[in-house]
Amino acid sequence: MLLQEILEHNDQFVAKKEYVPYETTKMPQKRMVVVSCMDARLIELLPKALDIHNGDAKIIKNAGGTISHAFGSIMRSIVTSVYELNAEEIYIIGHHGCGMSQSNPQGTLQKMVDRGVTSPMVLSAIEYAGVDLHKWLFGFDDVVDSITANTELVRNHPLIPKDIPVHGLVIDPQTGKLDVIVDGYKDLARSVELEQSL
């Protein structure tokens, strides 16, 4: 059983004090917060590609690395990172070949029915109550568009300071190569120029 393997490993990890190299504070040393996808290929690759070590950053992961609600848990974590954990930069990082760009809400709903978790009647009742399950389960069509939209959402959020750079990047899940979609520094410079011209 996987849980038992994990617990046995953990007992040895603690007994041998293998945690010592990872000791740090809760404050991100590089003063950054990263929102990224939960894709298993990025667990070690993303931090290595960004030169992030234990204690350097707050990393928030979910399906697709998307921010689906302006006042949902992802945005709450970003706001907390800025005000309580001294993060000074925000990075929204998607990846090529993301499963959320190929999501199939109807297929997912059918799998729920097939596993006996729900029924078509219950799904209809949820939809009738105003929850658009297809929209809720759908990811995005294009990773660049998704990163751009999420970056704009964070940059224009009423609770995010206007002097915080919000960057948007896409990582190759094979090589770790980063492509800049939105340069938060340039956006800040443009905002300052615009304010000065008014």
TrEMBL record:
Gene3D superfamilies reported in the protein's UniProt record: Carbonic anhydrase
Taxonomy, superkingdom: Bacteria
Keywords of this entry: Metal-binding, Zinc
InterPro entries, A to Z: Carbonic_anhydrase (IPR001765), Carbonic_anhydrase_sf (IPR036874)
Entry EC no(s): 4.2.1.1
UniProt keyword Metal-binding, yes or no: yes
Catalytic activity as recorded in UniProt: hydrogencarbonate + H(+) = CO2 + H2O
Cofactor: Zn(2+)
Family of this protein: Belongs to the beta-class carbonic anhydrase family.
Protein name: carbonic anhydrase
